[in-house]
UniProtKB/TrEMBL annotation:
InterPro entries: PA_domain (IPR003137), Peptidase_A22B_SPP (IPR007369). Keywords: Membrane, Signal, Transmembrane, Transmembrane helix. GO terms for biological process: membrane protein proteolysis. This is Signal peptide peptidase-like 3. GO terms for molecular function: aspartic endopeptidase activity, intramembrane cleaving. Residues 1-17 form the signal peptide. It comes from the Eukaryota. The lineage of its organism: Eukaryota, Viridiplantae, Chlorophyta, Pyramimonadophyceae, Pyramimonadales. The keyword Transmembrane applies. The chain crosses the membrane at residues 180-199, 233-252. Residues 72-153 form the PA domain. One of its GO terms (cellular component) is cytoplasmic side of endoplasmic reticulum membrane. It comes from Cymbomonas tetramitiformis.
Amino acid sequence: MSRVKFALLLLFTTSLAEEQDGKIACNSITPKTVVLRVTKGTSDYIDYYGILASFGTDVGGKPGNPITLAAAKPPLACSPVEKVEGGSIVAHRGNCTFLQKDIEVQGAGGEQLIVVNTDEDVFTPSCSDDEPITAKVTLPLPAVIMVSNSTGWKILEAAAEHGTVDVFAPVNPRFDGSLLLMWLVAVATVAGGAFWGAYDTKQLIRRSTDTQENCEMAPAEDFLDVVHINETAAALFVVVASTMLLLLFVFMSKYTDYLILVHPEALSS
Ligand SMILES: *[C@@H]1O[C@H](CO)[C@@H](O)[C@H](O)[C@H]1NC(C)=O
Ligand SMILES: *[C@@H]1O[C@H](CO)[C@@H](O)[C@H](O)[C@H]1NC(C)=O
């Protein structure tokens, strides 16, 4: 039980460490994959994928808040950026920290910063707690999203045509049918193994006692790998094993998205 509590605690401490005392909390946001729903002109939207930074504003779980795209001027956004009215500012990675770019974007009136990576990878943009802040900032800072180079260039094309972007993090449902399925598979495997094992053992014992009566062979247990466990231990084993599987599944799922999205644009066209 305490193991479960510990695991849950681990899961929530990151999201509890919100921005405190007007200081920028560099690790206040759980890294997650976000969808960037981009429209340009009157055509249909295209979904791209990116990674939300561990600082700045979190994004919602549902689409419905499209904002205008604008390319940052200067493109690296390391010095004051040309004013925009709200909207999402697209800047290139490099020459200064993500935090500085985000501060410049806020200074320009932007609501959001999309960072175009220099290559096809994506990772979680973060900041360092001891980074000196020279500008005046209002918390929370704009949301920061990193996209790969090729995705970034497509988004910049949309920005050139006054397109919009709607960023959201699709939420995993609290209860997932596959959890139940996994649990059933785990229990069925253990139970099936136990019954099969017991059946085998019974057969062997029966055969060996038959032989014993006729030919006086060694008692059955001498040549069987018999493990004596009682019912409580067996039940406990099933519970512990299924709990471990569940935990593995729950914890993996958060990071598997992240791992398989190394080349996210492969999923979007
Ligand atoms: C990037 O930084 C270097 C050195 O700090 C500077 O020489 C260069 O002009 C900067 N590039 C841009 C595009 O601002
Ligand atoms: C980034 O993408 C653009 C447009 O697809 C391409 O011209 C450029 O060479 C790419 N840069 C890198 C570093 O891959």
